[in-house]
Fold these 3 entries.
Entry 1:
Amino acid sequence: KTSSPVSWHKAKSLKFRYSPCCCSMGSQCSAACRSYGIDEGHVDSFVQTVQGYAGLERKPQEVIPDFGDHLQVKKEAFEQGRLSIVILGASGDLAKKKTYPSLMDLFLNGFLPPHVVIMGFARSKQSSDEFRAAMKPWLLKVKAESEVDRFLSRCEYFQGTYGAADDFRMLDQALKELEAKADFVTTNRLFYFAIPPDAFLASARSIKAGAMANGFNRLIVEKPFGHDLASATQLASDLEAVFSEDYIFRIDHYLGKEAVQNLLMFRFGNHFLEPLFNNKHVASVRVTFKEPFGTEGRGGYFTNYGIIRDIIQNHLMQVISVVCMEPPSTASGLRGGNAIRDAKVRVVSAMQKINIKDVVVGQYVANDGKPGYLEDDSIKDTSKAEMVPTYCAMVMYIDNDRWRGVPIMVKAGKALDERKAEIRIQFKDAECMSIFGDADLPRNELVIRLQPEEVVYMKAMMKTPGLSSAPMMGELDLTYKNRFSGAYLPDAYTRLILEALRGGQEDFVRSDEIMASWKLFDPLLKELESEAGAKKPLPYKYGSRGPQEGDDLFKRAGFKFDAEYKWKPGNCHSS
């Protein structure tokens, strides 16, 4: 859309609407791609993609994927050297359902170099061909066979033991043979720990002893990050004795969700919004996580954790810290990652001790043909399982000038009435409400939906259309799939793996963040689980909202439910 194709390609942040003039720019596009560092393996697919848009009739305001992102990637270290990505635990569920599909997405969209080596590592005895055959059905769920085969051609498998340094030395030799096919001097490696926490330390030591590359070496570590404060402290100390914080990327996929990624810009980049985020205007902050299914065969695992450890202490606390933190000193450049995480640590550290009276726990029971939690066949210790919450509602408070007195409400549960994760900022009653007589106007709410679809909407009062002057609640609605149709919105895991390759740590969890969160929740969990103060979960029916006591808790804390407000039929939201 510019007179020069080179300047068009240089505009790395440009979101463009397609202009037919580009359909004749094939050779110029190729030259521009090469001049800006895109290798031969990607030029043709890049140009074909651009030319492909020439024949599309696009709707007004429709956004095309940002090719500038690709140009930025090509200039980074992992594109300018050999690259291996090693998935530890490659035969496990996480690797099949999340890690490999995310890597395939990056590869097929041109965010991984064509020479990348993707090596699965696990204890299972199988060949690379057998591994690819076993992985293929999982990948076919999201991509066509030709694309899956192209990705699998970059995938290999190595059998080994996590704690055996000799196995990792042999892995290193296998990687070097594959990496040597790319004509570079520097070799970079990313190790993804899709393994249980008890294998973290042994794996880290083995990598350090036998599988380090001459470029960067980075470790993506999955949760859980400990079971309590003591175990989290020990795990962090042990890992950091092998690798410093700069090497470790602790992944919490909620930080990779598009709506959470947008929070920083949405909150601090809008003049009208940031001044409202404080106790002068906000009545409550509410973060909700709901799943419409139970543990379904994972009850044995879940019995060791419960909903507070599994969801609230990590995922939801990460969301709360971004919503409520003070502006970081910077959000860009080399200092941005630590500045953002410093701000998150400060707000979590400012939270008051959680009062057990402000906590409601529940456990789902059988309903309408669906089994209760205790009927999960994988649960062996039913006496222990009886005390495990599958639902929790709690109210917390932040002791700082911005949020003092504002209830921070958290609700998480399994086997509830819908799938939803959202942030809901409820504002105080309108100061001029009295001019409308006896009308009881509902409160404004800013709602940021994380799943199942990314949505941002503001509930705002207006008059009923037409001749009536009666008040009604409407919405200022930003639904991502409508407003940003055609934009590349990757899965959270996809985004975070790319960020780890880039070396950006702002979307990963630092050890002091984990400690601050555990210092908040450890006393509560000990109180809930102690023999003297044990709080038996309240029963709630599978498919319900959860215990009524949870809603009652939020009402007492000041949340106003608007029972009359409903979305129009066909809208994807619920009240």
Entry 2:
Amino acid sequence: LRLPPPSPASRSHALATMSAAAFVSCPSEVVPAKAATSAISKAMPLSEVNRHCIPEDCWVAIEGKAYDLTEFMDRHPGGPTTILNSAGKDATKMFKEIHKGVRIEQYLLPEAFLGNVGIDEDLMTESFWHKLREARIEEIEDELARLSAGGGGAGAPLSKAASTIQEVLDAPGISEELKSRVRSLETQKRAALDAEDFAKATEIKAKQAELLAAANVDFAGGNTKAGGIPLSEVARHNKPHDLWVAVNGVVYDLTDFLLHHPEQRNVLLAWAGRDATPVWDKIPGRFPSKTWMSFYMRPELRMGDVGPEPPEAPEAKLVRELRKELRRLKGPSEEDIQAAKAGSKKSAAVAAEASKADEAERYPKLKDVKVKQELPFFTRAEVAKHKGPVGGAPGTEPYMILHNKVYDLRPLLGSHPGGDELLLSSAGMDATKDFELFEHSEKARVRREQDMLVGYIVPAESADWGAEAAAGGGAVAGVEGQAESEVMMYFRYKAMDIVLGLGAVYAYRSWKHRKPLSMLTYSRLLRHMHLIMAVGIFGTLASAKAASYAEGLTKKRLLQVHKQSGFAMFVALLVRIFARSQSGIPPRFPGLPAVQFIETQSLRLFYLIIFVLPVSGMAQEYFLKWA
């Protein structure tokens, strides 16, 4: 129902007293919301995430949660392109395959979490949710107009120094010509970051600052006050070409440090523009820790002490929060979305056409790389023996084949954006297709030639990637052609549901026909545990053997089955120990005392081994991935 339009006074009072409003207004204090959509519901439909699909407004759904990755995009260790490919989509599958065991929240600002994805259809439909969103937009616009008419400052270009480019673009009073030039420079800067050309990105940022200063727009300040540097100022320096970090009340400029220490890139970008004090000395030897600071830190990197936030009038803070909520609820315009889609289609076509050409033709700087010495030839069988581990026997160093060249992976370990596990899973194999799928930059390819090249594949075994790409639509298209169809994915998920359902029925029937533990001996429960242990043993052995013959993501999935089988075996062993301690002890098999002794000790050794193996594996997983 549409009610008669209320008076400005009653509308203002309603906004100030909404129980689910995104802010609370009072004469002395303004409390912003944790998420812009909280004025509507605690969750949002996936269609709302789909609307935010442009570089300037990039939302992604991961494991049922929506995140705004616009701020994180440029400091993503893998570059912004990977995130832009999933803009406005559910990226759970890709995230799990590449970042297994990683908690994304530790890399994001708290306000990047927007809410859960999926609304309760019993409470409201998706279309009604969007009607509420549109109604909330009208309320915010009316409130901003009222504040502007009352001298609240909403009509000014900016209520305070803009902290992001998006705030500049959203501010009223900024000419369309200026916005267009700022967007163009932002696009160029993002392209430079994707190519890891930080010097060019710094140059473009300086041009942006000059352009905005000439237009009398106060953007990102940059002047350190005598009272210290507030964390809001640190948050503006959160890119690889402009990286500040606060640790223990001190602000450090690590921009030049990152250029000279690329191996520290992942951990530094995770805390770029943030206060890393909460994780101080959590992992000794890694940033931020006492050992790391004493080894790497230099006095010239210190910018100053962390200072208090500058005072801000409640009205100005209210205007700023309302503008932020309005931008999130409105999202990008249909024109911006269509322009972004058209640009992505064009770039995809260009990439597919470019992938038909030789790598050196697509990246001219590769021709300028000079090999310091004459390198040997390898057969593919020889490279296949180089699977690692790192520090193993000579002749087993982890090598990889890319474009008929052989590379040593050791210089890249510890600094690869996708992690060492993904890198080593392809050791000893030809990973050209996977390499091209992830669109590595020209700078990364040049660094690969300079630091990692150790030889070439013999001409008789060389693959003609240019001809193969031209015939199949490019290396990227060849990989995408192997993607699982939606029908097969549906049946695979349904098969898993059927297996889980049968397991639940079996467990229920077994529970209904249970016997007292004192009457079990070696009957139902112990036999079940022995069955699960046997399945776990054969599952771990078979999956590990199959993984040794697989490659890429298939190998990762088989290793996941290996770990899950081992965990099931471990749980069954614990239940077996409990049930065995409570049940009757059967008589020994007849025989000589020496034979009985050997039987007993061999069984104990067997159970000890199948206990130690999964425990050691879980300990390694915890300390290497989670801790």
Entry 3:
Amino acid sequence: FFSPVTMGDILSAYFIEPKHLPEGFGGSVQVLSLGVVYGYILFTGSNLISEGSELLLLIPSIAGIVGSVVLPILGAVPDGAIVLFSGMGPNAQEEVSVGVGALAGSTIMLLTVPWCLSIIAGRVNCFNGEYTYKRPASATSEWKRLDPPDRWLKTGVKCDSSIKTSGRFMLMTAGAYLVIQIPAFFASCGTTYEMEHGECHKNGLYVWAILGLIMCIGMFIWYLHTQIAESDEGRHVVLEALIDKVRQRAVRQTITTLRALYKDYLPAERDSLLKNPDWTSGDRMKHFLRPFFNEFDTDRSGAIGVDELQGLLVKLGEKADRTTAEALLAAVDKDKSGFIEFDEFLEVIGKQMQDAYMKEIAKPEDPETPGLKRRSTMGRLIKHEEEEVEEDAEMPEDLTDLSPEEQRRRILMRSAVKLSLGTGLVLLFSDPMVGVMSEMGSRCGISPFYISFVLAPLASNASELISAYVFAAKKTPKTMTISFSALLGAATMNNTFCLGIFFALIAFNNLAWAFSAETISILFVEACMYKVAQKTEHPTYYAFLVLLLYPISLAVVAGLEGMGFD
């Protein structure tokens, strides 16, 4: 019903036209102020989308599909919206450079800046080629993975081999750029060329744009399919980390309890523990409980007393007064020191969970018990290396005392509101943001590509940068893998979802392909990061080499344009 141009006009009619602002310093300040306001609104919208998606992870029946399909798509919406609206206005051929800048800037920024920060935040000591993730048996209570904290030489990070697969996905999907770029060179569209009348389009590049769109759609579906398959098989580390983060929050905020997790979501470990209630051999629960134990082991002595034990049990959702805590501690305190270590605590909680579960299955289940009220809100547990850093939580406490059906309904409603509001803000303010960045470029006398390359990712990808840093700061191989995999996954979504939108604009909005320099820059950085992702050990100096790719990519674009490339 609406053509792309009239839709852009309708949206633009409600906002200040940046090009109508006064010339000179005062007008430029107004343009910059508009950019700050619109950028902040886009940043808020992106965060609302993220928060709304994470709420859906509290519903076990859809957590897998949400984490493997919904989250990646919604995470790419802000960049996709900027790309879309940059090619929908009356000056689409000129303003689409803003969309290209947002696509290139988002991809390259995500692969460089947060990667660098993740290595710096997650680095540990490295002695004789071994990274010090495990506490030595002879270590004192003062032992740290990074000592001294300001140490840079002989430090680095380690991750598992799954990032190699993520790197391959990214590189393969980057091949979609070549579908149109190679024909563009043969059509003389890769160098400065007269395109005012769409001559490159007439040379048949629209056919290649359609083929590129089909390829992007196919790879997009293929990528999401692999994410779902990995989720079903329990091999999706990023999804498992997201679900685990929600589970940790829910336990700390009394949305769920350890007893409910034991009963409903750890059947394999539960069944083995029914035969042998020794939780010192149960990796999944052991790694889940370690952060809680460390929270109450405030002096880092590796042991807790009766007061700490009581607080810990209450934190995990158990009803425990001081008398109960004293009895439990005495039962496992073999040296009568009045303190128990982590393995002894596992004995306490393992026996308690086993007894509670046996009593539960011996009686008919109350039909009103299932669901969130019974605290069965989570999926699989992932393994956490010992001594993980506690995460802050912001869970909705007002849902705790509601019935299961009402909790689920409220969560869905709250998620829908956040997703709708966030998506609405992104769609509504992307078009005026494109106009602002285009006007900034005009007033500064530089291509809008460079403006959007730097500014657009700050609004649309800041949450990914922060999330990668927070995970890496836990200083474990697992969290480093999660951090790197999430960044590679975001680049893959840009190569499929966002690039597919761009191809659609080229094919159906009669735009010329004049982005050879930008394409070469993106492919150069992704090829370099593919090589980095094929290594599981990253010395700290890798952080600065990776960070250098960001300014180098801009220099590549400027250099190629200076040589005559579009």
